[in-house]
Structure formats: C-alpha cells, structure tokens
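Record 1 of the preview.
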Amino acid sequence: MNSDARETQEKVLGEITAQLHEATQAEKCWPCGCLHQSLQTIEQAVPSDQRSPELISALTAAAASLLPVKYECLGCQVCYPALAVNALSQMSGDKSLDVCPTDAVEVRAGWPPLPGNYTVLRYHAPVAVCTLTDDALSSTLSSQAGPAMAIIGTLHTENLGIERLIQNVLANPYIRFLVVCGDDSRQAIGHLPGQSLVALARHGLDDRSRIQEARGKRPVIRNVDRAAVEHFRQTIEVIDLIGTNDLGTIHAMGQECADLNPGPSDPFVFAEVVSPIPGYIPSRMIPDPAGYFVVYVDHHGGCLFLEHYKNTGFLDGVIQGHSAPELYTPAIERGWLSRLDHAAYLGSELTRAERALFTGTPFVQDAAPERANDSIPT
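->
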C-alpha cells in the first residue's frame, strides 16, 4: 500500500471511529437497528490487522452499548452509524455495504394475512396508518412514508373492515401504534368506520359483541374473537387524527410514535385463520337440465332480451328489460335455472350485457367457462 492509500485509509478509519463514538453517546442509537447492522458490517469489512487501537476501542464501546432492537431506524437527520458505513463504502468502493434499514423491505411472506386496500412498507416499523375512506391520502402517504411506518391503508366499514384491520395489524407484533386520519365516511352513509375504530380502542365490546359508544350503523365484531380484540386494545395505541389530511401533521405523529416505541409485543396467534384457496375453472361443463339462455342487446330499442331454450333446442320464453335484475328475477321465478353455476354464469353475462347497453359497445355472449380442449357432454 503506497503512502497516499495508507493516508486515505487512516482518514476513513478515523471518520468511522469518530462516528462510532457519537453513536455510543446517543441513547437513541443503542436499541436501533442502524447501529446493530453497522457494527456487523464494519467488523466484517475491516480485517483485525488493519484496525487501529482507537477503532478497536470504539467498536468495543459501541458493542457494549447495544440494547435489543426496538426499531430498525428512526430516520434521524444525522445518523452516526450510517455515516460510518458510508465512509467505509467510499474507502472500499463496495456499494453493497449500504445497509440502511430505511429502505423498503421485500414483502414478508404471510403478512399481512388478509388482502385489502393497503401498501406494505416495512415489517419491523412500529406505526400503521389508516386513512379511512381517503384513497388519495393513502397513496400519497405511501409514496412519502418515513421509516417509522409499516403499512398504510384505508377503511370503509365499521364491522368487516375493522375485523380485517385487527387481524392484519396483530399479525405483525412490531406494530404498536395505529394512526387514524383522513375523512370519515359521510354522515349520510352512516358507517363511520373511523369513529367506530377509535371507540373500540377506548371502550371495547359489549356482551353482544357490539362496539361500545360506536355511532356506525352496524358496529358489530363477529369474525374476530374477544381475546383478539382485547390483545389489539392492550398492545396497539390508536391515535385519533380523524379529519386530518395534512401530510406534515401525520408524518410528525408517526415519528412521535416511533420515539415512544416500546418494542415488539407478544405475538397473538389466532385460533383459526381462514386462508384463501386457489380458484379454478371446471374441467367440463355440465348442462343445466332446465335449459340454456341466449342474451341479446338491442341498442336501437334500448333494451335487453333474454331467451330461454329447452335442451331440445325449442324456445321456451323471452324476457325483456333494461337491467340485469329485470331479466334474471323472472327467469328464477319461472324455474329456468336449476344449477348454481348456471345462475352465476347468467348473472355475469347479463351484467356485461347491461354495461354494453349503457355504453353503446358491442356485446358477444361468452361460452360457459371450462378448461380448453375438454369436450362438452351430450
């Protein structure tokens, strides 16, 4: 190593030593994933024979200050461990040394367990954000989310929506705060999921599983047992910012929650989890003994026609209407459907036909669904 390279190395190692000393003095760094990961990176990247006595002392002191990880990163304006790793990266030219945990992680398998209108950001962050019925706010927050936020999504109902939210939040023990913001549903709709969610956190359920003090139309929790609700109430602090749409206020609250993060809670294991099963198309179509239908769209007359044929090919009857329900309701009453799959198929086709009538687009009736190359039984 020539003198210039040695001088550069000494300068960088001095910078690493100085930043580690700063991290050792900052209590917020002790339980932070930044310091934990940075120490591992430095110890792996700098051989023992290249460490100065000052660096060895700094590494030892920083390791002694470590506490169990409470948060992956607080997103501090000055992050001492990150500055140390950045200096090391510049010296070695190895960009893979960038270990900043503020980067979004890959979606963790199994979390969230239920689908919904949300954006997953990072598993180990302590804050979930619910923007209620404001999809635009959810999207904007997700694109600008800081490292404190784990997941951001919407909520539209005071029963099934809250049940789904509880299950997805409890599936991640690192989440300890839920910020509820955005506009609640209009009074005319009456669902008020935000007010109901806050009421659940404050007052729990009555003996009929109804959310106490909730003003929504049907604030009843049926698909999440009482133990899960109580675990949610005990481990998740719900922050009421209903009506707030200001990004700065919401981000500030997320950071304030992260500063108070008590660390992961005890995991909650649901007694029964309903997992999605894969959908499929039937291997062969089974004709309905009651007959089959032909759907027509009369754009000129502005109406729909539903013809019913017996399986012998003879026309059995015709229904005229302007909407899907006007056609399938009398078809059901006349006994022209005897199989549920045939009813589902008819509903789907009539919905497409209704849309074609209103938009003026062409309509071609699809065949009943079945896998390709399978024969239709006679």
